[in-house]
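ESCALATION

Customer reports they have been waiting on this structure for their group meeting. Please prioritize. Original submission:
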Amino acid sequence: MAVSLSQFYQELYAEHLEEAAYLYECLTPWRLDPEGSWQDCLDLEERFEAHLDALVIGGKTARTFLMDTLEDADPGTLFTITCVLCRHKDAAAIGQIWETLIGDPEEKSAGSSEDKQDEEEQEEEPDEELIAKLQAISLALRQEYPTKWRPRLAKLLNTQHRNLLPIIAETACENDSIDLQSAANLLANTPSWHRPKAIRLLGDSGQPEMIDLISPLLRHENIDLRKEAAIALLKLGSPEVLPLLQNDIESYALPLALAGDHASITKLIENLKPEEATEEQLYALGLSGELSAVKPLVLAMYNEELAPAAATACQLILGANLYGDVFIKEEFAEEDLFPEELESFQKGESPKHPAGQDYGENMEIINPDPEVWRNWLRENRGGFDIQQCYVLGHPQSKQALVSALGFARLPPALRQGIADRLAIHHKISLKSFSITDPVRRQLRWLTSISA
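Update from on-call: job pushed to the front of the queue and completed.
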C-alpha cells in the first residue's frame, strides 16, 4: 500500500510498465504466427498504446522511474521505455539505453582489430537474450523515433560497433538514400544473425548502386543469405540475377517465383515430388500464381504434414475461401499439470475439462482435405484462364496484390512474398513497410499505395 503520493505514482508507473512489457511479449510471436491473422493484433496494440500514453503523460517523474529499471530490463520493458523516450524526444536518455545494453558506441568504434576478432569468435553462439533486446529497441525506434532525427542515424551506419548496427539499421535505412560506404559497413560488420535483414534493407533501398555490393553474396556458403541476396537484386532491377538462379531451381524456387519466371516454375513443377516438397517450395508455387501449380499443390495435401501449407498456397492462387472451424486440441507439458493429472498424462491421456471434453479451442483454418479441393476445382474450373497468373482468384495486377497483402488470413511468409512481388514488378517501395508493423500503420500504408 502506497504511503505517499510519490510512492503511489511509482507503483502506478510500475504497473503500466509491467502491463506494456507483457503486451509486447504477447504481440511479438502473434505477429509471426502462421495460423493467426495479422489484423487480430489490433486489440493488443491499442491496449499497449493506453499504457504507453500513461507513461508519457507521467512526464519527468515517469522517465526517471523508467531509467532506474534499465539495468535488469527485459525486451518488452526496453521496447516500452524506448517508445516513451522517443515521444519525449529525449536523445540523451535513448543513448543511455544503448550504452547500458551494448556499451559506449564511440569506445567500440575506436577498438583494435583484436577486439573485432574477439567479437567475431563470440558470434559462433549468438546470445538469444541480447538479440531479443536489440530487436525490441530496433522496433521501437522504427515506430517512434522522431522523423527529423532519422538522417542522424544514417550517419551512424559507419560505426564499427557490431551490436549498434542491428539497433539502428532499419530506421536509418528509411532515409531517401544510403551512401555506399555505410551500406558496405553494414554488410561487413553487422552480426551474422542480422545479416539477412541487412541485405533485405539494402534491397529495399531502391538504389541500383547497391547491386555491385550485394551481387557477391550470391556465392556465399549460406543458402539463406544467397536467397535474400537474390530477392534484393530482383528488387533493385539487376539484369544478371535470373540466369544465375536458374542453375539451381529447387533452391531458388522462392526468388524465381517472385520474379515471375514462367519457364523456371514450369521446370520446378515438372521435377517436384509433391509429397516431398518443402513448405517454402509450396509457398513459391502459390506466389507464382500459375494455374499449373494447383495440381502439385493438391497432391501435396495427401501428405498430412504438408497439407496446411499446400492448401494455403492454393488459396493464394484461387481465392476459394474453403475455411472452416476446426477444434485444435491443447497440448500440455508435464510441468503444466497438477500431480493428480500427471499419472494419466504419462499413460498418454490428456487432461480433460470437468465436463469431460478435451481442452482446446475452435479455430477457423483453411481446409486441407485434397478431395474438398478437387470438388471445388471441378465446379469452378471454368472461371480461370490458363494464360493468366492469379492471386486470390483475380488476375495478378498491382491492385490485386495490394488487396492480397491486406487479406487477413494469409501467413506472414506469404504476405512478405506478396510485398516483395509488389516491389519487383510494380516498383513499390518497402522502406516504410514491414509485416510486423502495427496494424493501423500497415493499413495506412496499404491505403497510400492503393491510390
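Sent to customer with the following note: The longest helix spans residues 5-30.
Escalation resolved.
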